[in-house]
């Protein structure tokens, strides 16, 4: 135990083995839905769903463990939502690209990702972003995951006239979310340790009790083989030989680059680990992150990246890489205990995401709102992430406006060269990749 304490610096970070275990379990439960969602999304491209279940777990486990051991951050990773949909519906079904070729595109993008990391491009970007914008990123991610929680819990739903509207109480699953949220709010305010995790457990029990969550059909299941997807990216890498496929490669690269960079900044900020506006051990964290994408592509999945649901574990008290290692272990265990995971529906985890959103929104207090040249880009970042349903798009809004607002305030000299580079990159990103 002493060796673990010393390796992860638990005492220096005011945490404990028990706290990190609970944080890891909370993060895992919050993001375990990806084990089922990722195979369903990628499976529509023709990939084997059984293999995808195992690949999702293995790629997540690898990246989490590397992040924990190498960077000592409580940040978990897995195949990301959004890019898996782009992989299936835009590249495979829309462009009629074979899924094996699409995996090869992810592999090439991951190699470029690692090159950018080795040359410290991502680290330079993180260090160059002003403190106010870092706080806005963290708060924006909080609003984004709260929005995901409200949506997954059916407290809000689609509306043809207003885009979103309040959910219907006639939907019995909504009551699972409401029950979990009320319990979690009460426990959080009463300062009960592990309030978020307890809230999810009680919500799951409530869902089973009212008949809206079926009892697991078993406890243990066999582990599906990864043979149908393993190394297909390598075998088909020679098919990345057209302009269309290189556009796909750079789309994977750009979206993953800014999604994961923004997520890392926000989560490190939330954990209180940012020092003098710099991210300690940034190089190690970025290497862990990019290596996960590479391994994931070889195993057979769309890009792997940092998960915003890591904030749930951080809110419970996770502050070191031991949290991430535990998440990785739970992903490995999940390969045989998948039936049990079925009770943790989006309605069960919704309360955790909503409460974590509240906690992360606290970072808005650190933004200098009286300085319009700062307030406007920060506001666009915080608002843009949930409204565009994209961390990278929301970040882009603020990055594009920031130099314009600073010039208007006659603070041209405070705009660093890296912020100008980001301005140009995002202008290209919006007008080329997102032009409709």
Q: What do you see in this structure?
A:
- With 436 residues, the chain is mostly helical.
- It has one domain (2-433).
- It is built from 20 helices and 4 strands.
- Strands 1-4 form a two-stranded antiparallel ribbon. A two-stranded antiparallel sheet has the order 2-3.
- β2 and β3 (163-166) form a beta hairpin.
- α6 crosses α12 and α6 (99-118) packs antiparallel against α13.
- It is globular and about 60 Å long.
- The termini are far apart.
- The relative contact order is 0.21.
Summary keywords:
4 strands, 67% helix, 3% strand, two-stranded antiparallel sheet, 436 residues, single chain
Offer a concise description of the structure.
By secondary structure, this protein is mainly alpha-helical.
Could you tell me the radius of gyration in angstroms?
Answer: 21 Å
User: Helix amount, in percent?
Assistant: 55-70%
Structural class based on helices, strands and sheet pairing:
mainly alpha
- The fraction of residues assigned to DSSP E strands is under 5%
Please state the average pLDDT score. 88
Number of strands: 4
How are the SSEs ordered, and which strands pair?
Blueprint: H1 2-8, H2 17-31, H3 34-43, H4 49-71, E1 77-79, H5 83-94, H6 99-118, H7 121-128, H8 131-152, E2 156-159, E3 163-166, H9 174-189, H10 195-209, H11 232-235, H12 243-270, H13 282-299, E4 304-306, H14 310-316, H15 321-334, H16 338-341, H17 346-360, H18 372-388, H19 391-408, H20 417-433
Antiparallel strand pairs: 1-4, 2-3
Helix pairs in contact: 2-14, 2-15, 3-4, 3-5, 4-13, 4-15, 6-12, 6-13, 8-12, 8-17, 8-18, 8-19, 9-10, 9-17, 10-17, 18-19, 19-20
Organism: Lactobacillus helveticus CIRM-BIA 951
Pfam family, one: Xan_ur_permease
Subcellular location: Cell membrane
